């Protein structure tokens, strides 16, 4: 493998590992706001207990997410120096906005969220919970804005030539509201709601199956199910909007999504399949003219295919199948989450939600589905824009640090793999410890003195 491929693998690995945690913290933050709001509204002890329990898990997820996020900023400079210089003005502005609007908000209220019970009023603590949840979303906003600018650049001009060329902001708000940012941001945020809510569903399904903490588990399950159902249905809409945007601004990527080669042909929509680059065809289950209908509301309108683009400006033949598979896996999981949520809501309405052991077992494992969907969704978006790192402006092969050696990247990749493996094992150990311990009845135990500090991550 050459330096470019290894650098891409390393960045893909580190960002994929990091991306386990922010969606969980964003989604869990929303669930926490609802739980604590229910506690303030009703005064019922079970809502306080579930809020305290999930705040501890939130703290663990948040801590790992911050630690793994820092690494990628260094990778920009060490592995992708040309890219860093080219987009520095754009990314610098977005990351500065994240620090001002998001990280400062999170860090300012996080201490109250974690340690403020019995030290501030319930309303102040609830306000802190809201601020931390909003701060998590603001972080996602600015990161997605920066990434969306790479997909659909706007509000910039190019200064310099050759290796000294760089993009400079001419209109900050045009950069922020570039053609894909709103659609992609809504898709990412709703995906995060699904990740957080299905984590809560999974843990509480486990408790119900084990007949532990039943009152709290059933109430928590219903809150999370409400969030999951609304989010899964909204994701159907945001996904369609995002695909429409890709068709308009990145038609080569859309063609890769569907493995569509022939621009003169009606575009079928495949539910599953396998692309054959040599024969320029797909073997699988399809809806004839389905893609044409989704994009043009007509089953016979042709859709621009991969053959409309020069080979050097579109994903490679091997990449097309990867993009096709990851995209369709994301869509399939999204539909499965809708079906699972609606089935559970129906059984809830019938009063039989917690009588179906097989359904609870499905929910116990369902935490994996939004994670997989989020990961493969990013894979399809990032691999689908290749060979560009900034769409139409800077190629990935030109963005690499010129002085970087293959051996250096290989060594750092091995080290990252080992360190992250240990970190993931530690995360699972601490998460399992918290889940096994379960919610604590704060009214049946002695509340610690104000001088004592509960560690929400280790305890």
Describe what you observe in this structure:
It is found in: Cell inner membrane. The chain crosses the membrane at residues 20-41, 53-74, 94-117, 124-145, 185-209, 327-349, 409-431. The longest helix is centred in the middle third of the chain and has 36 residues, at 214-249. Strand 5 (388-390) and strand 6 form a beta hairpin. It is built from 14 helices and six strands. It has 459 residues and is mainly α. It has two domains: 1-180 and 438-450, no CATH class; 199-249 and 251-384, no CATH class.
Backbone CA Rg: 23 Å
Largest sheet: 2 strands, antiparallel
Give the overall pLDDT as a whole number.
88
Q: Strand content of the residues, in percent?
A: 5-15%
Taken together, the total number of domains comes to 2
- Described by the principal axes of the CA atoms, the overall outline is globular
Instruction: Look at the helices and sheets and give the structural class.
Output: mainly alpha
Low-confidence runs: 444-453
**End-to-end gap:** 44 Å
Q: Going across the major beta sheet, what is the strand order? A: 1-2
How do the helices and strands follow one another from N- to C-terminus?
HHHHHEEHHHHEEHHHHEEH
Number of helices: 14
The count of strands amounts to 6
Classify the helix fraction into a percent range.
55-70%
Show the helix and strand layout.
Layout: H1 3-18, H2 21-42, H3 45-79, H4 81-115, H5 122-151, E1 156-159, E2 166-169, H6 172-176, H7 181-210, H8 214-249, H9 251-258, E3 269-276, E4 281-287, H10 290-296, H11 317-349, H12 357-365, H13 368-384, E5 388-390, E6 394-395, H14 406-437
Antiparallel strand pairs: 1-2, 3-4, 5-6
């Amino acid at each position: 493998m050459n330096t470019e491929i290894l650098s891409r693998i390393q960045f893909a690995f580190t960002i994929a590992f990091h991306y386990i945690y922010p969606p969980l913290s964003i989604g869990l933050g929303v669930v926490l706001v609802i739980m604590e709001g229910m506690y303030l509204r009703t005064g019922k002890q079970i809502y306080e207990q579930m809020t305290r329990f999930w705040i501890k898990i939130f703290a663990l997820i948040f801590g790992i997410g911050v630690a793994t996020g820092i690494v990628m900023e260094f990778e920009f400079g060490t592995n992708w120096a040309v890219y860093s210089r080219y987009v520095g003005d754009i990314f610098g502005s977005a990351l500065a906005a994240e620090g001002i609007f998001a990280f400062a908000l999170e860090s300012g209220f996080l201490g109250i969220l974690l340690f403020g019970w019995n030290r501030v009023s319930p309303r102040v603590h609830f306000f802190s919970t809201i601020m931390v949840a909003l701060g998590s979303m603001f972080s996602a906003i600015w990161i997605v804005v920066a990434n969306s600018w790479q997909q659909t650049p706007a509000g910039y001009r190019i200064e310099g030539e050759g290796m000294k060329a760089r993009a400079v902001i001419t209109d900050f708000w045009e950069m922020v509201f570039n053609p894909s940012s709103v659609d992609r941001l809504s898709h990412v945020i709703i995906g995060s709601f699904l990740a957080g809510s299905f984590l809560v569903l999974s843990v509480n399904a486990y408790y119900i199956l084990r007949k532990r903490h039943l009152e709290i588990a059933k109430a928590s399950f219903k809150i999370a199910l409400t969030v999951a159902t609304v989010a899964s249905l909204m994701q159907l809409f945001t996904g369609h909007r995002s695909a429409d945007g890709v068709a308009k601004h990145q038609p080569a990527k859309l063609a890769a999504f569907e493995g569509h080669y022939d621009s003169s042909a009606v575009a079928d929509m495949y539910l599953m399949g396998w692309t054959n680059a040599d024969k320029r065809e797909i073997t699988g289950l399809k809806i004839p003219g389905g893609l044409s209908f989704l994009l043009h509301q007509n089953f016979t309108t042709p859709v621009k295919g991969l053959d409309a683009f020069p080979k050097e400006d579109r994903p490679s033949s091997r990449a097309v199948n990867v993009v096709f598979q990851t995209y369709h896996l994301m869509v399939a999981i999204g539909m499965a989450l809708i079906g699972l949520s609606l089935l559970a809501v129906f059984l809830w309405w019938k009063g039989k939600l917690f009588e179906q052991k097989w359904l609870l077992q499905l929910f116990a494992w369902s935490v994996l589905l939004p994670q997989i969907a989020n990961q493969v969704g990013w894979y399809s978006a990032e691999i689908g824009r290749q060979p560009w790192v900034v769409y139409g402006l800077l190629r990935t092969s030109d963005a690499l640090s010129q002085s970087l050696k293959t051996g250096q990247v290989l060594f750092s990749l091995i080290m990252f793999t080992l360190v992250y493996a240990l970190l993931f094992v530690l995360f699972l150990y601490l998460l399992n410890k918290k889940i096994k311990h379960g919610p604590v009845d704060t009214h049946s135990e002695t509340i610690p003195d104000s001088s004592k500090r509960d560690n929400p991550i280790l305890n």
